[in-house]
Design brief:
Phenylalanyl-tRNA Synthetase, Chain B, domain 1, Phenylalanyl-tRNA Synthetase, Chain B, domain 3, 33 strands, alpha+beta, 712 residues
Length: 712
């Protein structure tokens, strides 16, 4: 909204400098975005927020200035004497839900010619071109009072009648209604679009633009001046559908003042009579939906409590009166009656906002709010322990060269489909977002793997091929808990990939075992016992290079010999399958992409809570023996280690696998497995005979349990 300073001074006394006025307007909510200095004037470019249509006018801004500086506000001249006698003209409103009021006045014998220079200059300063004196006056009143006006050539209105109705109500056959507008465009209208019609056809698109058939030209002598109120939603819908934006539609969409309608009509009539001459005749005012005044009751005590400081009663009353609000006081209570122009004042907090913005936001002291925080005591110190554990994991992973990423917790349908996850998998139990920013983010993620794959694609497209990334965050499973909310477990996700090209130095270890070692160290740091790795069936992982991470524990149900063991899956790790890699939007060559995901909440629930017990360093030497055996291919290494660990002996300190061989000299259904056994006693130095006896017994135990053959 452009507002010339000289025009504002017509209605309120302004002694402040332009910069000072701009500052005060901005501080009270009317942001001055720019000041243009002309030869004899200053033009303010003011950003009007959508909730303040009353300020889309020179008078509205002058009213704000009047309230800021406490200066009186004067209303522009609009009084005249009209000719008496009965009017031979009718106005009918057929859709009073869309048009609450329609008024018109007839002026005969006008002279259409260019506007006076002062009028043209004011329009130009506000960004509106001059056309002729009558049209310019309707635009002038629109800028001055904020209420759109329109002038019809009276002699072009057929049947001496105005009908306000939707296109559907005036349509005469099956063909849609159309109208040729002032901009020369022919528009086909929907049935719910509001029109101004004469007795035979549409002559204007209500609240937006007039029709060419009733245009005021140099030949026009008699006028019908229109001033109406249209429902904002109706104007907005029609304007958006047709793609037409005008000064009139802009104001009607935000809500015009229903009561100032008459004054705007009289003001336009007064100016036309002064500038274009003619005789003024009677007015027709159809008002089926009258404005209902509202009352807002609030106490002075509540105003001060909300603002956080004490504002004297006299200052509150003065501010509200200066803003043009009707008030009644009774003790500590005040009743506020907003005028029809202030559609934004609905509740008590709106009144409080008016008080504080005029009193001055800068006067409100900055006070840090005080609120007691009650923390439920956790006797097991569990919450603090979990936070410390997560912090330790971050430090551990950063020490291994991993970089933490923080992703949005969203995923798309294609992302979960690309992982080939089965329909009965809990990761298919997704939670839809009601209003997603984009379709690729319409679900809350059920696995961190989708987020890490996004990171992979983004980095790979920028040439970053060596990646070690991790994220600690929540996933969301649409399975209701006792509190009625979906599950939100916390997971750890890891991604590892290395450049496939030759390098000066290259770690000889396979990436799979690097990541496996990182995972083992995390679990060891969390004191998770009895961890095992078994072949994974995750559909998006390479079936030969993937494993589920499990924890074995006793169920407590005793058998005749041993407690019954059960397994709990706490995560997975492996190489992304070729099928999954091919579906990525970037081409990845000669590189394995490894993913691991650990179920952090589950791990923290089963980790050993007791403090670790430290032992003294061994005082006696150890003795090592290597063993190689042939076993069936069907026996996995994880199962073999379960058998090895089931042999109970305090002398066996460690068992380490160092070779698995299949090939020349080995049957197709067999494999050679070699491992190292370390023996040590905490009480004495072991003799060769003692070791040989124990070692032979241990080897025989292994062979009997596996059906294997000892290799020479």
């Amino acid at each position: 909204m452009k507002a010339p300073l000289s025009w504002l001074k017509d209605y309120v006394e302004i002694s402040d400098k332009p910069e000072g006025l701009a500052y005060h307007l901005t501080m009270t909510g009317l942001e001055v975005e720019g000041i243009e200095y002309l030869d004899d004037d200053v033009v303010f470019d003011i950003n009007i927020t959508p909730n303040r249509p009353d300020c889309l006018s020179i008078l509205g801004i002058a009213r704000e200035i009047s309230a800021i500086y406490g200066k009186p506000l004067s209303f522009p001249e609009h009084n005249f004497v009209a000719e008496t006698g009965e009017l031979d003209f009718n106005i009918d409103i057929l859709d009073d839900e869309l048009c609450h009021r329609y008024a018109g006045r007839i002026i005969r014998g006008v002279n259409i010619e260019p506007s006076p220079q002062w009028l043209q200059q004011r329009l130009i300063k506000c960004g509106i071109r001059a056309i002729n004196n009558v049209v310019d006056i309707t635009n002038y009143v629109l800028l001055e009072l904020g209420h759109p006006m329109h002038a019809f050539d009276l002699n072009k209105i057929q049947g001496k009648r105005i009908i306000v109705a939707t296109a559907g109500k005036v349509r005469k056959d099956e063909n849609p209604v159309s109208i040729k507008l002032l901009d020369g465009s022919q528009r086909v209208l929907d049935d719910d679009m509001l029109l101004i019609n004469d007795a035979s056809h549409p002559i204007a698109l209500a609240g937006i633009m007039g029709g060419e058939d009733s245009e005021v030209t140099t030949e026009t002598k008699d006028l019908l001046i229109e001033s109406a109120w249209f429902l904002p939603s109706s104007i907005r819908k029609t304007s958006n559908k047709l793609g037409i934006k005008t000064e009139s539609s802009y104001r009607f969409e935000r809500g015009a003042d229903k009561k100032i309608l008459k004054k705007a009509l009289d003001r336009a009539t007064y100016l036309i009579h002064q500038i274009a001459g003619g005789k003024i005749y009677g007015k027709i005012d159809i008002y089926p939906k009258r404005h209902k005044e509202s009352e807002i009751k609030i106490s002075f005590k509540a105003i001060n409590r909300y603002i956080g400081m004490t504002i004297p009663k006299k200052d509150v009353i003065k501010i509200l009166i200066n803003l043009g609000l009707g008030i009644e006081t009774s003790g500590d209570e005040i009743t506020v009656k907003p005028p029809s122009s202030r559609r934004d004042i609905i509740r008590d907090v709106d009144v409080i906002e008016e008080v504080v913005r005029l009193y001055g936001y800068e006067k409100v002291p900055s006070v840090v709010p005080k609120s007691p925080i009650y923390i439920k005591k956790d006797t097991s110190d569990g919450f603090k322990t979990r936070l410390k554990r997560i912090k330790d994991i971050r430090y551990l992973l950063k020490g291994y060269g991993f970089t933490e990423v923080i992703n949005y917790s969203f995923m798309g349908e294609d992302e979960i489909n690309n992982l080939d996850i089965k329909d009965d998998d809990t990761r298919r139990h997704t939670i839809s977002i009601l209003n997603p920013i984009r379709q690729e983010d319409k679900y809350l993620r059920t696995t961190i793997t989708t987020s890490l794959i996004r990171n992979l694609v983004h980095n790979y497209s920028y040439g970053n091929r060596d990646l070690r990334l991790f994220e600690i965050g929540k996933v969301f499973i649409n399975e209701r808990q006792d509190n009625g909310l979906p599950k939100e477990p916390q997971h750890i996700g890891l991604l590892l990939t290395k450049e496939g090209e030759k390098q000066l130095y290259r770690d000889s270890s396979e990436e799979f075992y690097i990541l496996k070692g990182v995972v083992e160290n995390i679990l060891d740091d969390l004191c998770v016992k009895s961890v095992g790795f078994v072949r994974s069936n995750e559909p998006f992982l390479h079936q030969g290079k993937a494993s589920d991470i499990i924890v074995k524990f006793c169920s407590g149900e005793q058998t005749p010999t041993t407690p019954q063991e059960e397994s709990l899956k706490i995560g997975y790790l492996g190489v992304l399958s070729a099928r999954t890699i091919e579906r990525l939007p970037v081409k990845i060559l000669k590189q394995d992409v490894l993913i691991a995901e650990l179920y952090l909440d589950t791990i923290l629930d089963i980790m050993v809570k007791e403090l670790p017990i430290f032992k003294t360093l061994p005082q006696y030497p150890y003795i090592e023996r290597d063993v190689a055996i042939l076993i069936d291919n069907s026996i996995e290494v994880a199962r073999l280690f379960e058998i090895l660990r089931s042999y109970e002996s305090p002398i066996i300190e460690n068992i380490r696998l160092f070779d698995v061989y299949k090939g020349k000299g080995i049957a197709d259904d067999k494999k050679s497995v070699a491992f190292n056994i370390r023996y040590r006693s905490n009480e004495k130095t072991l003799s060769d005979s003692e070791i040989e006896t124990l070692h032979n017994d241990f080897v025989n135990f292994i062979l009997s349990r596996t059906g294997g053959i000892l290799r020479g």
